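Structural prep section.
Before we set up the soaks we want a predicted structure of the protein with adenosine-5'-triphosphate in place, mainly to decide which crystallisation condition to try first. Input record follows.
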Amino acid sequence: MDRPGPPAPIECTGLSRLFDGSILAVDGIDITFAAGRTTALLGPSGCGKSTLLRLIAGLEEPTAGQVRIAGEPPAALCRQGGLSIAFQDPCLLPWLTVAKNVALGRKLARQAPDPQGVDQIINLVGLGGFQNARPASLSGGMRQRAAIARALITRPRVLLLDEPFGALDALTRRQLAQDLPPLWQDQAATTLLVTHSVDEAVMLAHRIVILSPRPARVVADIAVPLPQPRNPESPAFRRIVGEILAQLARGGEMAQSLAAQ
Ligand SMILES: Nc1ncnc2c1ncn2[C@@H]1O[C@H](COP(=O)(O)OP(=O)(O)OP(=O)(O)O)[C@@H](O)[C@H]1O
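Run finished without errors. Recording the tokens verbatim:
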């Protein structure tokens, strides 16, 4: 499979987004995401995580500040098929087979067809034998595997994942969280993962960024120095989970005191 380029660093400078003149979702975020690393974004519901991801994807325009990916606006990378995004809803086209849905990723990115690559990635995400199945005949977990395959088929330089396992039951969620990350880590795309699960974040990410209640500001930036594969029962893992839960609680208190000033 060809690749649009090496993993790309992401730089957000003074990034803000105001909706409808009064709803400040993201407030002056300055942050850099190093090329090829996986960062989990955690924060309370409605704090602005998806808005931050959409700003980085170029799906929202900032009210102030800017996003640069490998030094260019996000649209430049999108045009080259270098950025993939996957949402909680797998968004598969119901009339297309799994193989055609995955191949669509390349077509939308204006990349040459690669039937062998499609077959390979479908096998890698654990859907071997389902190439010709349609989405309606798949389970929720299988559809999400297909959506991740479609995101990876372009070999993106940046991979943005917005709660990709959010709508799944706990067991399927844990299984996918074990099976899929080696794939995207193997590709070494710069990956941002929005999740509500602290365990999932510690399982998958090199780094965890905690955002305040809306408007989103960075309240903590935590490295996860554990080797992969990680054991969620290990004392070191539980220690980091505990630290993050404390930071999330502290983030809420900090926002309350700022609002009261
Ligand atoms: N297009 C929009 N128009 C108006 N308000 C919006 C729009 N998109 C998001 N918002 C508001 O911005 C705030 C942040 O929303 P966002 O979806 O980014 O939060 P989130 O942290 O991803 O939430 P959740 O964890 O519940 O998915 C919310 O108050 C939301 O209502």
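Observations: The chain has a mean pLDDT of 89.
Flagged for discussion at group meeting.
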